[in-house]
Automatic annotation (TrEMBL):
Species this protein is from: Helicobacter trogontum
Name of protein: Large ribosomal subunit protein uL23
Keywords: Ribonucleoprotein, Ribosomal protein, RNA-binding, rRNA-binding
Top-level taxon: Bacteria
HAMAP family per record: Ribosomal_uL23_B (MF_01369_B)
Family: Belongs to the universal ribosomal protein uL23 family.
Biological process (GO), any one: translation
Gene name linked to the record: rplW
Length: 93
């Protein structure tokens, strides 16, 4: 069962804001999220089916802090193509 809390953040970077103008939203989720689950979330909570979903798995970087090594968390990024006329007021900038 897909839940809206599986979406961590909506990315608002220079690149993602440019993509939003052409109807593509960039969503960051946990590594266990699949395209079908994300499609279900958009259908249940926002009332439309995305036209296309592309995914990207991002490995966490290894960083040093005060001489000790650590690693950032892994995550998945999804590029979701939204149909014309669909509106997501709670997610838009």
């Amino acid at each position: 069962m897909a839940d809206i809390t599986d979406i961590k953040t909506i990315l608002y970077t220079e690149k993602s804001l440019g993509l939003q103008e052409s109807g593509v939203m960039v969503v960051q989720t946990s590594t266990r999220m699949t395209k079908n689950r994300l499609k279900q979330i958009f259908k249940e909570y926002f009332g439309f089916t995305p036209l296309k979903i592309n995914s990207l798995k991002q490995e966490g970087k290894t960083k040093r802090f005060r001489g000790k090594e650590g690693q950032r968390a892994d995550f998945k990024k999804f590029y979701v193509k939204i149909p014309e006329g669909a509106n997501i007021d709670s997610l838009a900038v």
